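Q: Fold this one first, please.
A: Sequence and structure below.
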Amino acid sequence: MNQEILNLKPKPVWGYFAEIMQIPRPSGKEEKITAYLKAFGEKLKLETKVDAVGNVLIRKPATKGREKSPSIVLQSHIDMVCEKNSDTVHNFEKDPINAVIEKGWLIAKETTLGADNGIGVALQMAVLASTTIEHGPIECLFTVDEETGLKGAFSLKPDFLTSRMLINLDSEEDGEFTIGCAGGGDTVARFLYKKESTPANHEAFLINVSDLQGGHSGEDINKNRGNAVKILNRILWNISNKFEGRITYIKAGNLRNAIAREGKSSCVIPKKNTTAFAAYFNKLAKEIKAEYQTNEPKLNITCTAAKKPAQVIDLKTQQTLLNCLYGCPHGVITMSPDIQGLVQTSTNLASVKMKGDKKDEADDKEIPLLKENEIKIATSQRSSIESAKQDMVDMVDCAFQHRGVKISHADGYPGWKPDLNSKMLAVSKKSYKKLFGSDPLVKAIHAGLECGLIGEKYPGMDMISFGPTLMGVHAPGEKIEIHTVQKCWDLLTDVLKSV
């Protein structure tokens, strides 16, 4: 543990976050953090409940004189996105997160930090442990598996919560209040291929696309960042069509809610075409890097000689796969006509994977491959309008509607409709202005928040979301701006006092 973290202010919040960083908590494997929170609540002698899926609820009574104040839910999710650089050795199921302090930020350089949403968990824990802040009755809700399907929020029972006011602590920009979010869903396509003997008189090559920024598939989708799946496929499509190239292996991207940062493929080229291929590859790589030179200045595209493989993907499947990936949409589809700068509808071509690399298979915890001869493509769609989200799903379906392609859809999640007359919003705005002398920005976001599902489970729930400033979430290099944590703590405690 970096001991410097323990000296940051507010000390209780950073102290709990430092402990959380030591606890492995991938989505779907939150048993250790659930046990930690349960023991924490019980040690404070507070009512503590754990439901069937692992959601934790800790209730704290009102401070003296505030017994008649409205009860408020504080809510964060306890899982984290587990992304690391391909050359980094880190086991997210066993290893603690390493982070350093640089220029006012706490940053995990080689992995994700888990401030999304570990800092929200730490804020809640500090509220529960405090003996000095003034508040009405509080319910602290810690949900599981938000990042890969909102399982915790989906599983909430109608009688689990009693409050009808909620503060979600999963926002990522100081000075901004979120009062609405997009709904979303996933589309997965699966190809079955045949293995064929590698043709004679072919030479093998390994193609790598790396050093893209990646990022959150909702919050960062409008930043025109490169997508490793798209870039790698563009190269392979041209190799296949211009030089009779055959593919042995392909893997690009990882999690469905992250923009693909890295990709690689092994292929073979007829010896008669290798000289022309080398010249063409260098030209194409230079052109692609020039296209992205502003938004992706570190983009790296390489081609190196490799050991000739024994087998390749059958040509028919190869052609279908490359055509489907080329035709599959990615990025912003429409912007909101009502809220300036807000993405209304988008889709993320998240990953393409197949068996063949044991390390890659070990990293694939989200949507596993089902068969030995399978290629899997994962995508995610988002929209603040339900009908537009379905239209986007249908559009992606059409890109894969070829023989031998099996399409499936994960359960979608609803959006959260903004309420400008919210009491929570009014109280929070007043507190912010009093504390910091300026008005916060009130907005809706294109990312998904559990508020949509919670609002569906508990009709009439008055909700707001805020948090400190995070950058680079869902990608290695995720960081949190240190001084904004103090601001968030001051705001949270003042809102609890003011309601």
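Q: Good. Now the second chain.
A: Here it is, same layout.
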Amino acid sequence: MRMTISTTKVLLAAAMMAMGSAAYAQEPASITVLDNMTGDDGITYQPVVQAVSPNHRYVAGPAFSMETGLMGMFVYDLETGDYAVKPERDEYGADIREVNNDGVATGYNLQACLFSIDGTVDYIEDEDGIITQARDASDDLSVVVGCTYRAEDYITTACVWKDGVKTNLPIPTDEELGFETNGSVAYYTNSDGSVIAGYVVDNYSTNPLLIWRLQDDGTYVCDPVCTKYFSPMGAVEGRPYVMFSPQGLSRNGRYVSLNLMMSSEDMMFSEQHIGRLNLETGELETYRADGEGDIAANAEMQATQVSDNGTILGWALAGTWAMQQRSAIIWQKDKTPMILANLVPNITEMPSWDAVGFNTAIDITPDGRYIAGFAQDETYNYKGYLLDIGAVAAAVEAVK
């Protein structure tokens, strides 16, 4: 199928950065907003963009139907205007979180699947009674990560499919972790499948971080990174985080973006904030909104993804508890996090979607330049988009 898209191109306000005598000229920033799609079933779907391919040619995600109130899935080719859209297979909905340079998306629709721009779907099945969920894949799709569970108990088991063969990933015992667990999920992988990020399900469902690394013999070894930082209620000295949850892994396997929360001595919890963990050096950078920038002081924040150069996407809440406004945010390496709309001030869609309160920047290309997301307009219809932040990303990469 093919459709037209609306594209707004504007000049980004002067983005000059210097390193020594070097300076970087401004480039145009642009946003592409997808139109609604019509499936083979004749139903109109609103694209909820959640993934962009590394080459920024394809976007993908769930497809919401106002007619049925249900979620299907779609893949869209920005170069040709072709797309594929499929309805969900059961009432729990479909989900897509990754798409590669060939337009093949990874997700699930009742069962784990690989969904191509040509409309074909390859399902990853298991034995009867086992439900499979795929969350991410290597660039060549030889490694797919996710989990399995039984419908009667919904206890998830982290796993990897290598060339179609499933292997459950090793999980530390509760004694080794220092807290009780009730399942695990593999959620992200890097470009070649050698690093996997996921979590164990703790009693409070805060999802503490685990990392798996590929060994020379083809097996994976688990690094329980969370044990350096996390403990239930923040009760263990030196481990004050009551939330240490992964929300993205860079395609080079270097950075993990995190959702964080700490406790104090009187067991009062801080607001949710964000962090950047360098898996190569062990450096943890955190940010809590202090009101010094354009994010409201003490705003609750959440990360969504991180690029190869450490740029983190996410959102922040502002306003009273009854009138929360979700604004898309960006945290570039060595800079203060900011409202994404303020980085590209002449793209008028961004602040208008922030005002509605559901703007979610959720995926980013490895070079940190192209940002995929979704929002709702004034009529509360979904708008999927791809934002090119242009010279800003190029300058950041140059001084990395």
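Q: Anything worth noting on the second one?
A: The longest strand covers residues 181-189.
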